Amino acid sequence: MDFSRSQFIYREELQHLESWVKERRLNQISFARQKFSYFYLSAAGTMFPPELSDARILWAKNGVLTTIVDDFFDVGGSKEELENLTRLVEM
Hints:
By secondary structure, the chain is mostly helical. The protein has four helices and no strands. Helix 1 packs parallel to helix 3 and helix 2 (36-46) packs antiparallel against helix 3 (53-76).
């Protein structure tokens, strides 16, 4: 019973994350790797109790956004864009 309940929660969380990526059109960023399921699975494997749902989702969202920024610096952004982003973060 607990296994089935946990699996249901995990599936809902993964669907939520997939919707979040699509709603914010993060899946349309051509240079960015699409690895939201990897981040979610790493969270689910380490924070498995059902009551840690928010932590798993936030862990995965953080990983998605970090990957996009990393890919932007690696291949997606021009020198001017990278300098502007760096200045923005510094402010």
